[in-house]
TrEMBL record:
<feature type="region of interest" description="Disordered">
    <location>
        <begin position="135"/>
        <end position="171"/>
    </location>
</feature>
<feature type="compositionally biased region" description="Basic and acidic residues">
    <location>
        <begin position="148"/>
        <end position="157"/>
    </location>
</feature>
<feature type="region of interest" description="Disordered">
    <location>
        <begin position="1"/>
        <end position="72"/>
    </location>
</feature>
<feature type="domain" description="PX">
    <location>
        <begin position="267"/>
        <end position="400"/>
    </location>
</feature>
<dbReference type="GO" id="GO:0031410">
    <property type="term" value="C:cytoplasmic vesicle"/>
</dbReference>
<dbReference type="GO" id="GO:0097320">
    <property type="term" value="P:plasma membrane tubulation"/>
</dbReference>
<dbReference type="InterPro" id="IPR001683">
    <property type="entry name" value="PX_dom"/>
</dbReference>
<dbReference type="Pfam" id="PF00018">
    <property type="entry name" value="SH3_1"/>
</dbReference>
<dbReference type="InterPro" id="IPR027267">
    <property type="entry name" value="AH/BAR_dom_sf"/>
</dbReference>
<dbReference type="InterPro" id="IPR019497">
    <property type="entry name" value="Sorting_nexin_WASP-bd-dom"/>
</dbReference>
<feature type="region of interest" description="Disordered">
    <location>
        <begin position="297"/>
        <end position="322"/>
    </location>
</feature>
<feature type="compositionally biased region" description="Polar residues">
    <location>
        <begin position="28"/>
        <end position="46"/>
    </location>
</feature>
<dbReference type="InterPro" id="IPR036871">
    <property type="entry name" value="PX_dom_sf"/>
</dbReference>
<dbReference type="GO" id="GO:0016197">
    <property type="term" value="P:endosomal transport"/>
</dbReference>
<dbReference type="GO" id="GO:0035091">
    <property type="term" value="F:phosphatidylinositol binding"/>
</dbReference>
<dbReference type="GO" id="GO:0005886">
    <property type="term" value="C:plasma membrane"/>
</dbReference>
<dbReference type="GO" id="GO:0006897">
    <property type="term" value="P:endocytosis"/>
</dbReference>
Amino acid sequence: MATLPRATKSPNTTPVSSRIIGRPVSEFDNSNNPEFDAGLNTSTAWTEHLEHGYTSDPGSGEEGEEKPSRPARALYDFEGKAEFRELTVYAGDELQIVREELPDGWSLVRTDSGEVGLLPRTYYTFTSDFTTAPDVSVSPSRFRSKRREASDHDRTPRGSPTSEHPPALPIIPQHTGEWFPSFKQSLLGGKSLNRFSAFVTSGAEEWVLKGSEVEAIAQPHHAQFPSDASDDGMDDGASSRLSMLGLGEADRHYVDAGPAWKAKLPAFRVLVHSPSKRASVLSGAFTMYNVTSLFDGTRRQPSDESEEEEDNEEASPTSTRMTVSRRFSHFVILHTALSRRLPGIALPPLPEKQYAGRFSDDFVEARRGDLERYINKIVRHPIARYAEILTFFLGCESDLEWKRLVNQHLSIPPAGPSFYARVFHPAYNVDAEDAAEAGERFDTHTRAAGKGVQALRNIFGRVREARLEMSKAERLLSYSLLSLITSKPLASAPTTGVTEEDEQYNAKGKGLMNADGAWCWRECCEECLKLTKAMQKTSDTMQNIADMYDGHARRAQLETHEALKGVAHPYSHYEGVIQTHRSALSRYHLATAEGQANDDVAARCETVLNTTMAEMDTYHQQKVEDFGSLAKDHLDGEIKFYEQVLHKLKNARQAYDEPEYNELAATPRQPSMYERELENPRLGADPLTQPCPHVYDSAPMRPVSVALQEGVGLFLGPAGRGSMLGKLWPT
């Protein structure tokens, strides 16, 4: 599912980068690129419009008007810049599209008030293609007063079916963004308000009903094409026709029996590391990450030409790595391009954009981990891993080359139904009854898995808190032991069985410790000196173990807690696949019904079903890998932690055995570094850092920094006014 950058309309005092980040990223829009200037593109579009004869109002009927305008409706809010001839429109406004195709993705538009200007092509839909329900009145003013939230999935398509099955509901305007990104998700639980299902937005419905131009040109019998055929399985004529369409091997996808995606490239790993703060004149401060791709391979050892030595040839593993620098907006570009080119697969959601506390150490580390998990989820997908935009993202090392080519990748039109036209699979690879049962089982499984993981995340948070309590208990035990051998009282220490006479002793009197610092009333007592120094070492060891418990809960267990987010919402992740699967089955039954048989539609339905079931298989494989990796990493961390604790305990235990025990009497006891803390023990601890909320979390966990909470206060006002949100936010 596509996750678009979100932001609400802000006052004029808001930086430009904050205002434009909420726009849907389309082929013209590279707002996340700090060097991108929308004004250059709009000026080009306006100049092009003037050069084609629009010297005055295009609606006035003067010479130069090419064709009548078409009615449309705005899908999103757009705050235009007057100096660049851009219009400001609101979701639901009625428009007249004077000229649709202008350079860089703009259109020439007239509002209901007669104002003419530029508007991005992806911000409106043609209303002549829809039928409005007779009992519903659609008024732009109504939408302005009561605005609906945006879908967090795909945008409403302009290329949805127009004649066979027109929707019977009124057009609902879409509104992208809010000031604080996770707030809407916390209220909606990651649900989409887009009334169009994934079956429509992915282009699957249009493919089933109409097919695709790519199919007609490149492969007339698409569904019957064997999946095990690659370049050799397609004749030279078909290959050349694909090349003419700009479709290479990266745009052809194969399904094996299963159904399961056929991987063209071996899996590899990606590391996101070494974050650093940078600054730009245009975009201000931002965080840059190093992204390193690790490719494993084999290298043959040199040998003689004899066949016997060739048979015994050993292969030694090698690894190739490539490192590039990327910022969060570059990941947004990658996600946007992948969503447009691969609408039929379930892409992982991109982490939410942050507006406050972006440079705190906790948040930067959490964002680094989220981006690493995101990009590894992409490269593990057998289809997404060879996408051209991903290769470009991971391999482009030159900043100039990035700026030059990124617009070309974003300008490639959305795949839509052509994605399914380029999926090749064995004929009759799916049985309708088996597909229906598999879809229902998959639905039930992902819902139950999500619920179980959510419970596991909550319990794991309690385990981390318990480790913090264990740290406090170990520290208190250490202080108590040190207080005993030094006869120094521990502040606020609970005591039992202490009488009034016991409290009347003179703590400054002789007999508590001798001159060597031993816990004894006798001078020069070597036995007590050895015992005292050994017990002091035990106390210091407990302090070290307390630090280890605290650090383990804050670092190693936090990594596992963060990693659980990646498997926490499988149903939300694959909801679009499930919807498409059910809709394709419904169309298939209609196409194969007696008296209404349509072999072409049925064949195209089989293609969609092959795609959705291959996605289910991908989830199955990744689930096994993810949970196996999570369990092994957790156990390895626990083993390492307890081995370190055990090593500390063994060292403390050896102090009581010969010959180390006798050596303790050689020198007087030196005061412990923790004695000064007896009057003010370190029994309190900072709250544990919690994972950043996941995109689909309905009740996100506490943010990773106080700065994030301060960001909430930016639009809620003083602390007293933020009590409503405080009730929504767990503490």
